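User: Can you help me understand a structure? I only have the sequence.
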Amino acid sequence: MCYYYRMILLTFNLHTHTTRCGHAIGTDEEYVLEAIKGSYHLLGFSDHIMLPGIVHEKMRASFSEIDEYISSINCLKEKYKGVIDIKLGFEAEYLPQFVEYYKTLYREKGLDYLILGQHLQYDENGLPLYYWREKTDDMEKILKYKNDLIEGMKSGLFLYVAHPDIFMHNVTVISDEIIGICREICNASVKYDIPLEINLGGLGYSNLKAQIYGTNPYPNHYFWEIANEIGCKCVVGVDAHNPGKLTSYKCEFVISFMERFNLKPLTLDEINVYINNNKLRNN
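Assistant: Let's start by predicting it. Here is the structure, written out as tokens:
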């Protein structure tokens, strides 16, 4: 089983950021070269999506940079063709006001995929309303996160859900209501056949929650125990914000985590089926 996990971890990553978002480092090509060094067969770029009319420093690039991003990734696709498969994607929130914009990216910009990373909503003035920052155990905010996430799964826009358990970041009391929210998210994943991401970005956090009940903010033990029980499909995502993360994450921890909960992430062939079957991509 350990060999099985290692083979999956060394084949692909679809959660890769670029410096454009304002909180990552390294050139686009450096990510590709590090992926080749790590024996990856597929590297998907999924920087935080640029949104028309939204200025959000240190979170996402301005809308004016989207064509340059697309051009850069497409150039790397061609340059390294036959060496590594490169895909063009974005990490995006489900935002009803931008649904048609997302569909346009598939139709007109050659987008390969979107991953659903529900960090926030924007108010009528374009100001961010975060789901996972500031206030701890805010049930109104957690319920809003859950509802928006499920609507995103239902929309058919997204390949998979990035860090579905990110809402656990500031939860300090594992109540029946919190467990119920985990179950609703996992049930929706099965209902809409949307895999959930075991996100490795949370491994570097040390916060109040880890001190209180001995688990990472994400991937979160409570959440993934339920995901395994319900039978959710899953994907491993490095959530790389610098090239070195593609080859330096704590492989042994990830393997032990997956073994503990009997999680079987999608293989390279399986994730390619999901990408290729995307109806929006093929229209």
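Now, to help you interpret it: Residues 208-213 have pLDDT under 50 and may be disordered. Residues 139-155 form the longest helix (17 residues). Let me know which part you'd like to focus on.
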